[in-house]
Design a protein that fits this description.
The chain has two domains: 214 residues, HUPs (Rossmann fold, 3-Layer(aba) Sandwich); 103 residues, Tyrosyl-Transfer RNA Synthetase (Orthogonal Bundle), CATH 1.10.240. 54% of the residues lie in helices and 7% in strands. It has 14 helices and five strands. Strands 1-2-3 form a three-stranded parallel beta sheet. Strands 4-5 form a two-stranded parallel sheet. Strand 1, helix 1 and strand 2 form a beta-alpha-beta unit. Helix 4 crosses helix 7. The radius of gyration is 21 Å and the shape is globular. The two termini are 31 Å apart. The structure holds adenosine monophosphate and tryptophan. Tryptophan (TRP) binds next to strand 1 and helix 7.
Length: 343
């Protein structure tokens, strides 16, 4: 039986990249058979690797939990909790810090991007961030991890850490970790620059569609989205396997991004999306995309706004989730301590 784990940082500005790349897939997986448990975690320990205002962190933790439930994750079927409530995550992370090699962490591209030029001033936590991610997953011996494309390298590292632990201690304890990266929008790009990932921290609000945006804002952001000067491409832009050809992605990243978002929102193939708009103007595609996003995102945002006012309900979901997660992870941690030789 498969066990699922994934996490989202409570850093605010949840956007359609988070939704189409990850949260929508969390909901889909929850319905699959042959799954023993699904853990969906608000990863607040990861968030403090860069400075967070304490009041804001509290608010965003509830908001992220609200986004899970509003998107369709059922707290009766899935374990929804915040990471700092379950001590095994930090405890196992220490153990895994002693398994992971410095050279492995030095290869992490996200650290290089986030630390920027001033690496010396970055927190040790930011550097060790992927080890904590491995600990999250391995605390529950989960094997399948739904994420957006940007987390692939971190999951390869988590798999290497698990394998090295098994190898060093001559056990078959941890399972093989596999990323689940699927759907039409595994990497949603910025609406202002098709070469850049849509991100919570981009200073331009026009770069992303937030889950809490209203109709007019969605329409306006899509209207202002960057395009190129040609009309929408035809079916010759697609490979036989239905994906966009690499040269098209390189030459027309904004057009490809808008079509990918449409595919994700409408659950249609790239062939269907291209056929609908081939030869038409960007204004037609933008109108269709705005209508589609409004019909898919507004209901989630409305539900989130309603839920955010019910702090009692959200806290009770997080409390129940933390109790279950604590119990499940404690059992594994005891076995791990025994393998290591702790008395
Ligand atoms: P984060 O907000 O960094 O905690 O990301 C939460 C989840 O959303 C992770 O699985 C990410 O891979 C995914 N994600 C974040 N940004 C994007 C994006 N632009 N496109 C697709 N998935 C994304
Ligand atoms: N690092 C992930 C992100 O920023 C969030 C995360 C933390 C995560 N722990 C995880 C994702 C464990 C999957 C599994 O997107």
């Amino acid at each position: 039986m498969d066990s699922i784990f994934s996490g989202v940082q409570p850093t605010g500005n949840l956007h359609i990249g988070n939704y189409f790349g990850a949260i929508k897939n969390f909901v889909e997986i929850q319905r699959r058979e042959n799954i023993s448990k699904t853990y969906y975690c608000v990863v607040d320990l990861h968030t403090i690797t860069v400075w967070q205002d304490p009041e804001q962190l509290k608010k965003e933790t509830l908001e992220t939990a609200a986004s899970f439930i509003a998107a369709g994750i059922d707290p009766k079927k899935s374990i929804i909790f915040n990471q700092s409530r379950v001590s095994s995550h930090a405890e196992l992370a220490w153990i895994l810090n002693c398994i992971c090699r410095i050279g492995w962490l030095n290869r992490m591209t996200q650290f290089k991007e986030k630390a920027g030029k001033n690496k010396e001033k970055a927190s040790v936590g930011l550097y060790a961030y992927p080890v904590l991610m491995a600990s999250d997953i391995l605390s529950y011996k989960s094997n399948l991890v739904p994420v957006g494309d940007d987390q692939k390298q971190h999951l390869e590292l988590a798999r290497d850490i698990a394998n090295k632990f098994n190898h060093d201690y001559k056990v078959e304890f941890f399972p093989e970790i596999k990323p689940l990266i699927f759907g039409s929008a595994t990497r949603v790009m910025s609406l202002r620059d098709g070469q850049k990932k849509m991100s919570k921290s981009d200073e331009s609000e026009f770069s992303r569609i937030n889950l809490l945006d209203d109709k007019d804002t969605i329409r306006n952001k899509i209207k202002k989205a960057k395009t190129d000067s040609e009309s929408i491409m035809g079916l010759e832009a697609l490979e036989d396997n239905g994906e966009f050809k690499t040269d098209i992605v390189v030459q027309r990243p904004e057009a490809v991004n808008l079509l990918n978002i449409l595919c994700a929102a409408e659950n249609i193939s790239k062939k269907e999306a291209v056929s609908m708009f081939s030869g038409k103007n960007f204004s037609d595609l933008k109108e269709g995309l705005s209508d589609s996003l409004i019909s898919k995102i507004i209901p989630i945002g409305t539900e989130m706004k309603k839920m955010i006012t019910d702090k009692k309900y959200l806290s009770s979901v997080l409390n129940t989730g933390a109790e279950v997660a604590e119990e499940d992870s404690k059992k594994n941690l005891l076995e791990i301590k025994n393998i290591i030789g702790f008395n």
